[in-house]
Amino acid sequence: MTKPSILLFRYVPSDMDIIAIRDIVASTGFFNEEEIDIAVELVEERLARGEKSGYYFVFAQTPDGRVAGYACYGPISGTKSSFDLYWIAVHNDERGKGLGPAIMEKAEKAMADMGAVQVYAETSSRAQYKPTRSFYEKQGYVQTALMEDFYDEGDGKVVYVKKLR
Amino acid sequence: MTKPSILLFRYVPSDMDIIAIRDIVASTGFFNEEEIDIAVELVEERLARGEKSGYYFVFAQTPDGRVAGYACYGPISGTKSSFDLYWIAVHNDERGKGLGPAIMEKAEKAMADMGAVQVYAETSSRAQYKPTRSFYEKQGYVQTALMEDFYDEGDGKVVYVKKLR
Questions:
Q1: How many structural domains does chain A have?
Q2: pTM score, two decimals?
Q3: Is B87 a domain residue?
Q4: Of all helices (H) and strands (E), which one includes residue A89?
Q5: Domain range holding A112?
Q6: Mean pLDDT for chain B?
Q7: CATH number of the domain within which A46 lies
Q8: Measured between alpha carbons, how far apart are the two ends of chain B, in Å?
């Protein structure tokens, strides 16, 4: 595992990130067209409505300005201090450098600063998502729910939670 | 328990329902200001964006035109055939007449017609919501998840599911 090169973390999205996010999410090979569109819609919504959208971002940028990975998160409305980690993804070309944990750390720090006590993350129960589930587990996330057949027959939703304090 | 008087079920929302929904949800005494606003926003969103909003409704109307109760539901995006029952509420003046089960039946029929295989409903784990949980259980909903402290400390989220076929 190569150490990540010097990374710049950025929290304010720009129009350029619409393309960057589509590119990153598609490069992982984990998401279908509909899911990629949803990922892109979140940043579009943020650009259109600002913080009122409820979507917050952290982008990991390489020294030459490319976005290598990002996370999208925000408070869950109707809750006092629960946050949702909507997306965390690293470009396929940048995998294996520890970027995922580095982005996660920045996202959690930002959420904690916003008052988050617990963070939820959802993923699929399918075998294909084993690496995703292992990633969350290594980052201290604990499974709190399994809803069978949620996404489709044989494709359940796994919900993880991490207490930040 | 008095039998419900002749009820008319209506599926197309109108501007008048904005007031009706606020009135019904507030009358139950179960929801705070923020939650009432969320209930109202769903019908506003539907009126503004049509079916693209993803919010569908069934209204139970008395012969004199008052809305006695309603349900709001819709497909969960990213899933093949899972639906969310966002709200089901009966005006406090109309309780004890079997309206809840009658509205539920119509909502489930409408969801099944739209391809729903399973319906999810969420509520609070607090003692105050025991009647709500009992209502879902009587209607054949089964608890599939309990996320502790989700809404607030000591206020968990209970997720129910019902298979429609």
A1: 1
A2: 0.90
A3: yes
A4: strand A82-90
A5: 8-116
A6: 94
A7: 3.40.630.30
A8: 30
